[in-house]
Automatic annotation (TrEMBL):
Top-level taxonomic group: Bacteria
Biological classification of the source: Bacteria, Pseudomonadati, Pseudomonadota, Alphaproteobacteria, Hyphomicrobiales
Protein name (database record): Putative hydrolase protein
Keywords for this protein: Hydrolase, Signal
Species of origin: Rhizobium mesoamericanum STM3625
Keyword presence, Amino-acid biosynthesis: no
Signal peptide (from-to): 1-21
Hydrolase in keyword set: yes
GO molecular function: hydrolase activity
InterPro entries xrefs: AB_hydrolase_1, AB_hydrolase_fold, Sec-Metab_Biosynth_Hydrolase
Domain AB hydrolase-1 stretches: 30-242
Amino acid sequence: MNCRIVSTFAVALITSAIAFAAQAAEIKNIVIVHGAFADGSGWRKATEILERRGFHVTVVQEPLTSLADDVAATNRVLDLQDGPTLLVGHSYGGMVITEAGRNPHVEGLVYVAAFQPDKGEDVATLAGSKPPAGTGIKQTKDGKYLYLDPSVFHADFAADLPKAEAAFVAQSQVFAAKEVFGTKVGDPAWRTKKSWSIVATEDRSINPDLERTMAKRAGSVATEIRSSHAVFASQPKKVADVIEKAAKEAGR
Protein backbone atom coordinates (compact mmCIF):
# COMPACT_ATOMS: atom_id res chain seq x y z
CA MET A 1 0.00 0.00 0.00
CA ASN A 2 1.61 3.29 -1.07
CA CYS A 3 1.80 6.42 1.08
CA ARG A 4 -0.98 8.23 -0.83
CA ILE A 5 -3.45 5.39 -0.23
CA VAL A 6 -2.48 5.15 3.45
CA SER A 7 -2.89 8.92 3.84
CA THR A 8 -6.29 8.92 2.13
CA PHE A 9 -7.46 6.04 4.28
CA ALA A 10 -6.27 7.76 7.44
CA VAL A 11 -8.03 11.00 6.55
CA ALA A 12 -11.26 9.13 5.77
CA LEU A 13 -11.04 7.23 9.04
CA ILE A 14 -10.48 10.40 11.09
CA THR A 15 -13.28 12.23 9.28
CA SER A 16 -15.69 9.37 9.94
CA ALA A 17 -14.69 9.26 13.60
CA ILE A 18 -15.24 12.99 13.99
CA ALA A 19 -18.62 12.80 12.26
CA PHE A 20 -19.67 9.88 14.42
CA ALA A 21 -18.60 11.67 17.60
CA ALA A 22 -20.50 14.78 16.60
CA GLN A 23 -23.60 12.76 15.81
CA ALA A 24 -23.35 10.80 19.07
CA ALA A 25 -23.13 14.02 21.08
CA GLU A 26 -26.38 15.37 19.63
CA ILE A 27 -29.00 14.60 22.26
CA LYS A 28 -31.76 17.14 21.71
CA ASN A 29 -34.76 15.27 23.14
CA ILE A 30 -35.60 15.72 26.83
CA VAL A 31 -38.47 13.77 28.40
CA ILE A 32 -39.49 14.79 31.93
CA VAL A 33 -41.48 12.70 34.42
CA HIS A 34 -43.03 14.66 37.28
CA GLY A 35 -43.37 13.35 40.82
CA ALA A 36 -46.31 12.63 43.10
CA PHE A 37 -48.46 15.40 44.60
CA ALA A 38 -47.80 17.64 41.58
CA ASP A 39 -48.18 17.62 37.81
CA GLY A 40 -46.02 18.57 34.86
CA SER A 41 -46.96 22.27 34.79
CA GLY A 42 -44.35 23.08 37.44
CA TRP A 43 -41.69 22.29 34.85
CA ARG A 44 -42.74 25.14 32.56
CA LYS A 45 -39.90 27.55 33.42
CA ALA A 46 -37.21 24.89 33.13
CA THR A 47 -38.76 23.68 29.87
CA GLU A 48 -38.73 27.18 28.37
CA ILE A 49 -35.07 27.61 29.32
CA LEU A 50 -34.13 24.29 27.71
CA GLU A 51 -36.14 25.04 24.56
CA ARG A 52 -34.34 28.38 24.17
CA ARG A 53 -31.11 26.35 24.28
CA GLY A 54 -32.27 24.21 21.37
CA PHE A 55 -33.76 21.19 23.10
CA HIS A 56 -37.06 19.49 22.32
CA VAL A 57 -38.81 18.95 25.66
CA THR A 58 -41.82 16.76 26.44
CA VAL A 59 -43.39 16.45 29.89
CA VAL A 60 -45.14 13.17 30.70
CA GLN A 61 -48.45 13.57 32.54
CA GLU A 62 -48.48 10.13 34.11
CA PRO A 63 -51.70 9.05 35.88
CA LEU A 64 -50.13 8.04 39.23
CA THR A 65 -52.48 5.06 39.34
CA SER A 66 -49.74 2.42 39.46
CA LEU A 67 -46.04 2.20 38.71
CA ALA A 68 -46.83 0.04 35.67
CA ASP A 69 -49.30 2.64 34.34
CA ASP A 70 -46.80 5.44 34.88
CA VAL A 71 -44.02 3.52 33.13
CA ALA A 72 -46.36 2.77 30.23
CA ALA A 73 -47.30 6.46 29.93
CA THR A 74 -43.61 7.36 29.85
CA ASN A 75 -42.80 4.73 27.24
CA ARG A 76 -45.58 6.06 25.01
CA VAL A 77 -43.89 9.46 25.02
CA LEU A 78 -40.40 7.99 24.60
CA ASP A 79 -41.56 6.04 21.55
CA LEU A 80 -42.57 9.33 19.89
CA GLN A 81 -39.03 10.72 20.09
CA ASP A 82 -37.06 10.90 16.84
CA GLY A 83 -33.65 10.19 18.30
CA PRO A 84 -31.61 9.66 21.47
CA THR A 85 -33.29 11.02 24.57
CA LEU A 86 -32.37 12.15 28.07
CA LEU A 87 -34.95 10.97 30.62
CA VAL A 88 -35.51 13.18 33.68
CA GLY A 89 -37.47 12.27 36.81
CA HIS A 90 -38.44 14.26 39.90
CA SER A 91 -39.25 12.66 43.27
CA TYR A 92 -41.41 9.55 42.64
CA GLY A 93 -40.63 10.14 38.96
CA GLY A 94 -37.23 8.65 39.76
CA MET A 95 -38.93 5.29 40.29
CA VAL A 96 -40.58 5.64 36.89
CA ILE A 97 -37.43 6.54 34.96
CA THR A 98 -35.52 3.71 36.64
CA GLU A 99 -37.91 1.33 34.88
CA ALA A 100 -38.70 3.30 31.70
CA GLY A 101 -35.02 4.13 31.25
CA ARG A 102 -34.53 0.70 29.71
CA ASN A 103 -36.33 2.03 26.61
CA PRO A 104 -33.83 2.01 23.69
CA HIS A 105 -34.41 5.72 23.01
CA VAL A 106 -32.91 6.61 26.40
CA GLU A 107 -29.23 7.51 26.51
CA GLY A 108 -29.04 8.91 30.03
CA LEU A 109 -31.00 9.56 33.21
CA VAL A 110 -31.28 12.63 35.44
CA TYR A 111 -32.69 12.26 38.95
CA VAL A 112 -33.99 15.57 40.34
CA ALA A 113 -34.51 15.36 44.13
CA ALA A 114 -35.71 11.88 43.28
CA PHE A 115 -35.85 8.31 44.46
CA GLN A 116 -33.16 6.27 42.71
CA PRO A 117 -33.97 2.68 43.60
CA ASP A 118 -32.06 -0.53 43.15
CA LYS A 119 -33.73 -3.78 42.12
CA GLY A 120 -36.43 -4.89 44.56
CA GLU A 121 -36.76 -1.53 46.33
CA ASP A 122 -39.88 0.62 46.67
CA VAL A 123 -40.64 4.18 47.79
CA ALA A 124 -41.88 3.20 51.25
CA THR A 125 -38.75 1.18 52.08
CA LEU A 126 -36.36 3.81 50.77
CA ALA A 127 -38.11 6.71 52.50
CA GLY A 128 -38.24 4.75 55.75
CA SER A 129 -34.49 4.09 55.69
CA LYS A 130 -33.79 7.80 56.15
CA PRO A 131 -37.07 9.53 57.04
CA PRO A 132 -37.65 13.05 55.70
CA ALA A 133 -38.36 16.07 57.89
CA GLY A 134 -41.86 16.50 56.50
CA THR A 135 -44.73 14.36 57.78
CA GLY A 136 -47.73 15.79 55.95
CA ILE A 137 -48.75 12.86 53.74
CA LYS A 138 -52.36 11.79 54.31
CA GLN A 139 -54.67 9.22 52.77
CA THR A 140 -58.10 9.72 51.26
CA LYS A 141 -61.23 8.48 53.04
CA ASP A 142 -61.33 5.30 50.96
CA GLY A 143 -57.69 4.58 51.86
CA LYS A 144 -56.68 4.11 48.23
CA TYR A 145 -54.92 7.40 47.46
CA LEU A 146 -52.38 9.64 49.17
CA TYR A 147 -51.98 13.40 49.08
CA LEU A 148 -49.86 16.06 50.77
CA ASP A 149 -51.77 18.10 53.36
CA PRO A 150 -52.26 21.59 51.85
CA SER A 151 -51.66 23.16 55.28
CA VAL A 152 -48.01 21.99 55.24
CA PHE A 153 -47.47 21.88 51.48
CA HIS A 154 -45.51 25.14 51.38
CA ALA A 155 -43.16 24.09 54.17
CA ASP A 156 -42.67 20.47 53.17
CA PHE A 157 -42.70 20.62 49.38
CA ALA A 158 -41.98 24.13 48.13
CA ALA A 159 -40.63 26.38 50.90
CA ASP A 160 -38.60 28.50 48.47
CA LEU A 161 -41.54 29.24 46.16
CA PRO A 162 -43.78 32.27 46.76
CA LYS A 163 -46.55 31.30 49.17
CA ALA A 164 -49.32 31.92 46.62
CA GLU A 165 -47.57 29.79 44.00
CA ALA A 166 -47.07 26.95 46.46
CA ALA A 167 -50.73 27.21 47.47
CA PHE A 168 -51.83 26.76 43.87
CA VAL A 169 -49.62 23.68 43.46
CA ALA A 170 -51.11 22.28 46.65
CA GLN A 171 -54.64 22.89 45.41
CA SER A 172 -53.96 21.33 42.00
CA GLN A 173 -51.85 18.37 43.17
CA VAL A 174 -52.48 14.95 41.65
CA PHE A 175 -53.32 12.32 44.26
CA ALA A 176 -51.20 9.17 44.00
CA ALA A 177 -52.56 5.66 44.34
CA LYS A 178 -51.27 4.18 47.58
CA GLU A 179 -49.98 1.11 45.76
CA VAL A 180 -47.37 3.08 43.80
CA PHE A 181 -45.35 3.58 46.99
CA GLY A 182 -45.17 -0.14 47.71
CA THR A 183 -44.33 -1.40 44.21
CA LYS A 184 -40.82 -2.75 43.78
CA VAL A 185 -38.73 -1.94 40.70
CA GLY A 186 -36.94 -4.39 38.45
CA ASP A 187 -33.43 -4.11 37.03
CA PRO A 188 -32.54 -0.40 37.27
CA ALA A 189 -31.68 1.41 34.06
CA TRP A 190 -28.88 3.29 35.82
CA ARG A 191 -26.84 0.09 35.90
CA THR A 192 -26.37 0.22 32.13
CA LYS A 193 -26.83 3.92 31.32
CA LYS A 194 -25.15 7.09 32.51
CA SER A 195 -26.92 8.97 35.27
CA TRP A 196 -26.88 12.34 37.00
CA SER A 197 -28.46 13.40 40.27
CA ILE A 198 -29.57 16.70 41.79
CA VAL A 199 -29.61 16.77 45.58
CA ALA A 200 -31.94 19.41 47.03
CA THR A 201 -30.13 20.26 50.26
CA GLU A 202 -33.20 21.72 52.02
CA ASP A 203 -35.55 18.94 50.94
CA ARG A 204 -38.23 18.01 53.49
CA SER A 205 -40.01 15.45 51.26
CA ILE A 206 -37.00 13.20 50.61
CA ASN A 207 -34.12 13.25 53.07
CA PRO A 208 -31.14 14.92 51.32
CA ASP A 209 -28.83 12.30 52.86
CA LEU A 210 -30.91 9.59 51.18
CA GLU A 211 -30.58 11.44 47.86
CA ARG A 212 -26.80 11.52 48.35
CA THR A 213 -26.65 7.84 49.30
CA MET A 214 -28.68 6.70 46.30
CA ALA A 215 -26.64 8.85 43.89
CA LYS A 216 -23.35 7.51 45.25
CA ARG A 217 -24.55 3.92 45.05
CA ALA A 218 -25.56 4.39 41.40
CA GLY A 219 -22.34 6.17 40.49
CA SER A 220 -24.31 9.21 39.38
CA VAL A 221 -22.70 12.59 38.78
CA ALA A 222 -24.21 14.55 41.67
CA THR A 223 -24.92 18.28 41.94
CA GLU A 224 -26.14 19.88 45.16
CA ILE A 225 -28.54 22.82 44.98
CA ARG A 226 -29.73 24.75 48.02
CA SER A 227 -33.44 24.31 47.53
CA SER A 228 -36.69 22.73 48.66
CA HIS A 229 -38.11 19.58 47.11
CA ALA A 230 -39.57 21.77 44.34
CA VAL A 231 -36.09 22.59 43.04
CA PHE A 232 -37.28 22.24 39.42
CA ALA A 233 -39.66 25.18 39.94
CA SER A 234 -37.71 27.35 42.37
CA GLN A 235 -34.31 26.95 40.68
CA PRO A 236 -35.23 26.26 37.04
CA LYS A 237 -32.01 27.67 35.54
CA LYS A 238 -29.75 25.59 37.79
CA VAL A 239 -31.80 22.47 37.03
CA ALA A 240 -31.73 23.25 33.29
CA ASP A 241 -27.94 23.68 33.50
CA VAL A 242 -27.55 20.18 34.94
CA ILE A 243 -29.88 18.70 32.31
CA GLU A 244 -28.03 20.45 29.49
CA LYS A 245 -24.67 19.24 30.77
CA ALA A 246 -26.03 15.69 31.09
CA ALA A 247 -27.43 15.78 27.54
CA LYS A 248 -24.03 16.77 26.17
CA GLU A 249 -22.12 14.19 28.21
CA ALA A 250 -24.57 11.31 27.72
CA GLY A 251 -24.08 11.42 23.98
CA ARG A 252 -20.31 11.04 24.07
